[in-house]
Amino acid sequence: MLKDSSAHLDSLRITWLSEPFHLGIPIIDLQHVWLVHIILELEEEIVEAEKNDSDIEVHISFRKALDYVAEHFALEEDLLEHFNYPNFKEHVQGHRKFVEKLTERYYEAKNNQMAALGILQILKKWLFQHILHDDTDYAEFFKASNVDLKSYCNQMLKSGKYPISKEQLLIYQNIVQIDTTTISLHEQSIDTIQEIRNIWKTYNLSTGIPIIDLQHIWLLKMIVELDHSLKLGDGSSETFHKVIAEAIEYTKDHFGVEDKIMRYFRYTDVVQHMNQHKRFIEFIKMRNDEYKLGNPRVGLHLVQDLRNWLLSHIALEDKKIGIAFESRVRELSEFTKKLHQTGEIGISREQKNLYKLVLQSVPDPLD
Length: 367
Known about the structure:
- This is Hemerythrin.
- GO terms for molecular function: metal ion binding; oxygen carrier activity.
- Keywords: Iron, Metal-binding, Oxygen transport, Transport.
- It comes from Leptospira jelokensis.
- Belongs to the hemerythrin family.
- By secondary structure, the chain is an all-alpha fold.
- It folds into two domains: about 5-175, Four Helix Bundle (Hemerythrin (Met), subunit A) (Up-down Bundle); about 190-360, Up-down Bundle (Four Helix Bundle (Hemerythrin (Met), subunit A)).
- The chain has helices spanning about 5-20, 25-50, 60-80, 90-110, 110-145, 150-160, 165-175, 190-200, 210-230, 235-265, 270-290, 300-325, 330-340, 350-360.
- About 30% of the residues are buried.
């Protein structure tokens, strides 16, 4: 939060009360208040940057927005699916389109100022269009259906699938000013598998090629583990060194597999794709050099780089490979199976198990 926290909270309260955002579902309202907080914080940063003629740390704002959508969309979709909301599919499609638009606006911007303004515009549009209309529709459905929302929401929170931070709870209490004893923090635990699953679904990362998806999920595990470590205040060299080592290993294994697939099946954009791989290797090397020089923010930089890679490369470029070869999935499976049998690619039991846990009820990627 910026310097004048009381002014920020006043603005947040005024914005929240200016429209009928309150749905009467505490856990959803808490996350919606958090979205308003993110929007106002970004607005304040833009104003401050213009006043001081300084640059905006737009990467942080983008990451906050992505954290929000991954957590909020996953919880909301769980809730709607559980209570058989009739417009569930359309609601989910709206979520996926929002992530695409947010990502496009960020990566297409020519500078940080334009990126920040683009993100702000998308977030505001979402707040005033989606929440006031689509979310109000499902809130009315729940009321009419007389479902036991309270028990199910408590169950979700206790499961640890959807953690709530102390800061989120404090801001919600301050703005809404109602009893929040139903939102329990002390019983929560971090569910890494669920968090990976939430990001995987929300960012729509599946390529449809099992071996590539397996390796992408393994990368996602690295990101989530490093992110948890940083959020818990453990910026230890041991954690960072482990993730850097895994990232270097990942580049060798994963890029090698993609290269073999693209060349064997004559993918048309192979040169441009491999150039992006080279850039990934370069930023991993750069972060490793920063780590050796003792940069205290290197962990945050690496998390941001890896998250950017998820959206700028995996969700866009790697998906193109899946689309190009969607009619040849069986051939691809046979090809990767042979590569594994001859020892040209290696997949650990841990990677296989994580793949199955995240995607739930999927066959072995090499069967």
